[in-house]
Design goal:
The complex is a heterodimer of chains A (281) and B (127). Chain A is an alpha+beta fold. Chain A is 12% helix and 27% strand. A 5-stranded mixed barrel of chain B has the order 1-2-3-5-4. The longest helix of chain B has 6 residues. Classes of the chains: A alpha+beta (281), B mainly beta (127).
Chain lengths: 281, 127
């Protein structure tokens, strides 16, 4: 086989392996809006709807069953517990809570995938833009499976809106630290529209609509972010120094001496049945 | 335990810190409605994720030093408030307003703006 034949076969193999989309036009970054870079939350910390107060103040359209669950969670929280918020044990926030954006995020646009790198808890959103469909069989994850589409709404030859749909999510998750619940079936669907402010390209919006069986209707909020022009990044590895511990369903905290402390007044010590009663010599 | 807590109170009424530090999780285990001020010596300052940890040795009414563990915001939040891993070091004498644990154990939450050195200077300037 000649060298030319080998090279032709290699080129053909590249097209076959990469698929039909990759064989299309070359990636032209000038067609994309200037969303790359660091984006900071605008608005209060730890709420899904940035325009409303936390917890009940969010006025989430919960079904009666999930409103009752939320109220039970708030009653538990009032006694000093963490309630239904799973993040205190270093479980990632997942979607859509990750977009509450405790700490900044970075958008990285590539030909077939757009990435959102979140400083907080080192969460990563991988949004496929290569035309694929949702997988039929894939284990769920906290960040979910995201498919995106860049859209040229005004027909000027440049994309101006990034539509994203996220499915295949994993529990436990909540909308926020107050324990606002998602349904236990984890069939949440999150639809987003990212776009820059027309007058100020340093402002980014994310219109988020959540469909979830804990809700009586889709819940839509508008997130606003501002571009940080002198970004710094701080590593956020949750297991490094987390002092919150769950044992037998009870939550405790490690004290200054490294030993367990109670959260609540009168909280019993953990069940130590698996330890010998006499200290080892 | 509540009486021990009372022994280290310097003043009773301070601004509630609310949920400002609650980046990582609910801070419901801390009593935001009844903040207290404690005074003591920094034993350890861990500038770690998910929350910074400040351990302060506080003399109780019985004269015995006890270590209080104080949980702050994420390092990423505190850095942007002007705090660094070198802002506090062992031996620093400080006063700090905290939201104490509901349980009465020696723990609570703190925010950088509420930590002051012995001479009254804040660790980070208010924004």
């Amino acid at each position: 086989m000649s060298l030319r034949s080998v090279m032709s076969l290699a080129a053909l193999a590249t097209v076959v392996i990469a698929g039909p989309v990759a064989a299309q036009q070359p990636f032209d970054e000038n067609k994309y809006p200037p969303m790359a870079g660091q984006w900071q939350r605008v608005g209060p910390l730890g709420v899904f709807d940035s325009t409303k107060p936390p917890a009940r103040g969010q006025e989430a359209p919960l079904t009666p069953e999930y409103q009752a669950r939320f109220e039970a969670n708030l009653a538990e929280v009032a006694k000093g517990g963490s309630g239904d918020d799973p993040v205190h044990t270093c479980i990632p926030e997942g979607m859509p809570r990750a977009m509450n954006l405790v700490l900044p995020m970075e958008i990285v646009i590539t030909r077939n995938t757009t990435y959102i790198l979140m400083e907080y808890l080192t969460m990563l959103r991988r949004i496929y833009t290569d035309g694929r469909d949702f997988p039929k069989e894939e284990d769920p994850s906290w960040m979910g499976y995201s498919i995106g589409k860049w859209i040229d709404e005004d027909g000027d030859g440049r994309f101006d809106v990034f539509e994203v749909e996220t499915r295949n999510l994993k529990n436990p998750r909540t909308f926020d630290p107050s324990g606002l619940p998602v349904h236990e079936d984890a069939e949440t669907v999150v639809k987003e529209r990212f776009y820059l402010d027309k007058a100020n390209p340093d402002i980014l919006y994310d219109q988020i609509t959540v469909m979830d069986h804990a809700l009586t209707k889709p819940w839509t909020v508008l997130k606003t972010m501002r571009r940080e022009k002198k970004p710094i990044w701080v590593e956020s590895i949750c297991s490094e120094g987390n002092v919150h511990v769950t044992i037998g369903g009870e939550q405790y905290m490690l004290g200054g001496d490294g030993l367990l402390m109670p959260f609540r007044e009168g909280q019993p010590a953990p069940d130590l049945r698996h330890f010998s009663k006499q200290p080892a010599k | 335990m509540k009486s021990q807590l009372a022994a280290v109170l310097i003043a009773g009424a301070f601004l509630a810190t609310g949920g400002g530090a609650s980046a990582h999780h609910s801070f419901a285990m801390f009593d935001a409605l009844h903040p207290i001020e404690i005074a003591g010596t920094v034993k350890e300052f861990r500038f770690v994720s998910p929350h910074t940890i400040l351990i302060v040795s506080v003399k109780g009414q019985d004269g015995v030093d006890k270590d209080w563990i104080l949980e702050g915001g994420a390092p990423g939040l505190q850095v942007r408030d002007g705090m660094t891993s070198k802002s506090l070091k062992p031996g620093d004498e400080i006063t700090v307003t905290i939201n104490p644990l509901h349980s009465g154990a020696e723990g609570g939450s703190y925010q950088p703006m509420q930590v002051k050195f012995k001479d009254g200077h804040p660790v980070v300037a208010p924004k």
